[in-house]
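Teaching assistant here, posting this on the class forum so everyone can see the example we discussed in section. The complex has two components, and the goal was to see what a joint structure prediction looks like when all of them are supplied at once.
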Amino acid sequence: MTDYLQDPALWGLVVGTPLAAATIYRARKSNVKLRKERAELETRHHELESNFSEAVDDARLRAEEATKTALKSAMRTLQGLANEQQLAISKIQDKYGDQGILQDLLGIDHMNSQFGRRAQSVAVLCDGWLGRARSVASVYDVARSAKGRIRHYTRVEIRSQTNFAIISQAVEPVALVLAELLDNATSYSSPEAAIEINIRTVPKGVCVIIDDAGVGMNEEEKTRAQRLLSGENPVGVTELGNPPQFGFAVIGVLAARYGFSVSVDSSSPYGGVRAVVLLPQELLTSMPEPQEPTESEYLADEEVEATGTTAGGLPKRRRRGAIAIVPTGDSANSAAGRSSEETASIMGAFQRGTQSGRTQSGRSTEPSREGHDVQ
Amino acid sequence: MTTPSDDDLEPPVDPLEPEYVELVRPYVITNGRDVSDTSRFELITLVTAADDTQRKAHLDPEKRELVTLCEGGYLSVAEIAGHLKLPVGIVKVLLVDLVENGLILTRRPIPPAQLADIQVLQEVLDGLQARFG
């Protein structure tokens, strides 16, 4: 026993064990502390990370909004000019209708329509102005209007007519959607191939079917198109790609906003794409019977007399509205097609406009109109 | 003096606004046809609807309106253009189509030269010269 007492190893063990125990205990303690710190750091890191991505998203959104605002304002100016020009062209066409220059004027008119449509498409993506309010128009006329807004319009054949008409608020959006579809159809098919439009009445409303004889779309393109057309995740102006592809994005936004559906997932009998626009009953109204104009013509004649004559003794002509079939009550028509909420919102906009005009002092942070910044 | 533009909302529509851009442009109505090749029609060419107007239901709205307009009797090209509010050149293209389809009949205005026979005038002149000349 005493041997052991003399053994330095024992003493070493006696002293060493508590020391080691103390060290291990301390190390454990610091380990726990470190682990805690690490966990804290980790949460902090996550916090920072999410803050950062939030900030990035925020900045992206703000940049998107700023781009939209600038583009919207620029497009509004362009759209106004295109409209003004169209009116001017109409007047010259009437004036020189019997002369050789008419052919050239029609060409200029066509170019102006395309120009206006492009500006309109960008405006739609920026939640901007869609264009002037229209009167109720037949589906056939809306399709023809759409046809006139693309470059190769002579290739488009409209095969059928219906007695259905589109309500005034939806005329311009539907025309724009059809124009974008026709533009795609003509761009992705050979220069001689015809594009066919068929208008069909279905239980849910009216279908406008556009068939092309083009190359069609692969699965990937179809998926992308269907995603954009659904309008569920609207594409920002900054995500259109280079060169930017407006068509499907514009269609998606309009279809979602006005409540109709567009699909391009079937193929046409000619091998290309078949685009189907389904207009629900809510967007439709009936068209007066085509036989009626005889009666309204007399009404129109009476009206011409009522508006008086020019200095030269010729009857003064009234400009017609968008549809010629019923020349009377054009403005009454558009007024009737407006709901009370719409009237209220229009009046509200008018009031806000005049108010901001009155309160606008010499200094304003917002430009009143693109190109005329108030300093 | 600048009026502020409220871009977020559609501008108020003035119901009395007299000018309105047509929805269907004239070049679409003619489907891009050449409007200069319509020399057979003059402003005073008279046209009327053929008896067989049953087929007009399948026509474009403008052509249908034109045929309906002419059912009552003869109208000049200028008058039709006035009623349809279309440029004269466009109306002529529509008329060319309708005449080809047999839905519209034309009657050329009587040329002024046919009102008096030049030969008769010459004979009168000869007679006068023989007697007094």
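For the discussion questions: The first strand of chain A starts at residue 137 and ends at 138. Chain A touches chain B through 75 residues (CB under 8 Å). Think about how each of these relates to the inputs above.
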